[in-house]
């Protein structure tokens, strides 16, 4: 009973941790994608000799 309860608590914690990590990684991925787009835009303007 005690072991089963402890295993369930550990499993619940790990599932919660997994979801939290996935959410944070998704947010970071969105931010990185936006930064990559901005860098590509700026690089294109610099290549064309446009002023920022």
TrEMBL record:
Homology family: Belongs to the BRK1 family.
GO molecular function per UniProt: protein-containing complex binding
GO biological process: actin filament organization; cell motility; regulation of actin polymerization or depolymerization
KW Flavoprotein (keyword) present: no
Transmembrane segments annotated in the record for this chain: none
Keywords, alphabetical: Coiled coil, Cytoplasm, Cytoskeleton
PANTHER family named in the record: PROTEIN BRICK1 (PTHR33668)
Tagged with keyword Coiled coil: yes
This protein's name: BRICK1 subunit of SCAR/WAVE actin nucleating complex
GO (cellular component) term, any one: cytoskeleton
Main location: cytoplasm
Top-level taxon in the UniProt lineage: Eukaryota
Localization terms from the record: Cytoplasm, Cytoskeleton
